[in-house]
């Protein structure tokens, strides 16, 4: 009996060893996926530090012989990047803030507020989620142009204020919240605004951070609508203004300059992701482990 007791812990240990031995193979798809994403970005960043001869060549140049920020200086001379950055910041900040607030309040209303035709409204949100934004491009332009919104901030922001994805994601998350929390607050006399700001929003921060990141990236990288609604360089956003580098000079020797401009467009999004990374991971894994 004593021997069996002493031998019993060997089984979990052997299982752990087998798991530890098999775990590295599971990282192979993850490493390949990360490489597909990271290598082009890394190549773009390195290419912005190269000379034109090192970029436009038949031989592979992995590392620039003399790294230089001359491409960034040339890009800033060809295009007014401070103005483009300001336009993108205003459009992204205001548009994302309004979209997040609307998504939170809409999802709260769909879950915790009783009103008629709630299911029909949610079905309409799902339909809007399936319809591409390009389908409404012409009606939006006709409507905004008739109101005088061409080359204006509100003309760029207004058509994209509704976010079906954010409303859907937050609604699904709100459905998982314990109803006892809101019932206790209601018994204490808390209204909908208090319940939303004091209970729902604090416990839903990871999911809200995920919606915020998707919204910020979408607003920052939006290209088609700002391209259609603006025809002045003073009102262009960064993705639209980046095409000015190609339109200004189509010489292949300016590829480092175009890469430098692309780095300036991507860098703010990477910073936002680094800031919200923990919240995003918590939001994606929430409920996966109990």
Structure, explained:
By secondary structure, the chain is mainly α. The protein folds into 2 domains: 2-37; 78-285, MetI-like (MetI-like fold, Orthogonal Bundle), CATH 1.10.3720.10. It is 74% helix and 0% strand. The protein contains 15 helices and no strands. Helix 4 (70-78) crosses helix 15. The chain starts with a helix and ends in a 5-residue tail after the last helix.
Keywords summarizing the entry:
74% helix; 15 helices; mainly alpha; 290 residues; 2 domains
SSE layout and pairing:
Elements: H1 2-7, H2 10-47, H3 52-55, H4 70-78, H5 81-112, H6 118-130, H7 137-146, H8 153-157, H9 164-174, H10 179-187, H11 192-203, H12 205-221, H13 224-229, H14 238-248, H15 255-285
Helix pairs in contact: 2-15, 4-15, 5-9, 5-12, 6-9, 9-12, 12-15, 14-15
Helix content: over 70%
Shape: globular
According to CATH, the homologous superfamily of the largest domain is MetI-like
Number of domains: 2
Largest sheet: none
CATH C-level name of the largest domain:
Mainly Alpha
What value does the average pLDDT take? Answer: 83
Which stretches of 5+ consecutive residues score pLDDT under 50?
1-13
Can you tell me the CATH architecture of the largest domain? Orthogonal Bundle
- Total strands: the figure is 0
**Total count of helical runs of at least 4 residues:** 15
* Rg estimate, integer Å: 25 Å
The helix/strand order is: HHHHHHHHHHHHHHH
Distance between the termini: 36 Å
User: Based on helices, strands and strand pairing, what is the structural class?
Assistant: mainly alpha
């Amino acid at each position: 009996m004593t021997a069996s007791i002493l031998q019993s812990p060997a089984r979990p240990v052997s299982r752990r060893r087998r798991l530890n031995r098999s775990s590295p193979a599971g990282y192979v798809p993850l490493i390949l996926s990360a490489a597909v994403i990271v290598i082009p970005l890394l190549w773009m960043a390195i290419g912005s530090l190269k000379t034109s001869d090192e970029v436009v060549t038949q031989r592979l140049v992995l590392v620039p012989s003399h790294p230089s920020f001359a491409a960034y200086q040339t890009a800033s001379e060809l295009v007014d990047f401070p103005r483009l950055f300001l336009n993108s910041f205003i459009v992204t900040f205001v548009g994302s803030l309004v979209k997040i607030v609307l998504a939170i309040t809409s999802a709260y209303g769909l879950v915790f507020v009783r009103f008629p035709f709630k299911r029909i409204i949610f079905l309409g949100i799902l339909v809007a989620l399936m319809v591409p934004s390009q389908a409404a491009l012409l009606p939006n332009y006709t409507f905004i142009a008739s109101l005088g919104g061409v080359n204006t901030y509100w003309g760029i922001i207004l058509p994209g204020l509704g976010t079906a994805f954010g409303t859907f994601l937050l609604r699904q998350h709100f459905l998982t919240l314990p109803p006892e929390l809101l019932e206790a607050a209601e018994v204490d006399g808390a209204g909908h605004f208090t319940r939303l700001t004091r209970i729902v929003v604090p416990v839903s921060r990871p999911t809200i951070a995920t919606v915020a990141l998707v919204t910020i990236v979408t607003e920052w990288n939006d290209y088609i609508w700002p391209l259609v609604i603006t025809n002045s360089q003073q009102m262009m956003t960064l993705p639209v203004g980046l095409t000015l580098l190609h339109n200004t000079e189509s010489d292949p020797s300016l590829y480092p300059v175009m890469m430098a401009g692309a780095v300036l467009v991507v860098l703010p999004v990477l910073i936002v992701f680094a800031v919200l990374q923990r919240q995003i991971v918590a939001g994606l894994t929430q409920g996966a482990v109990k």
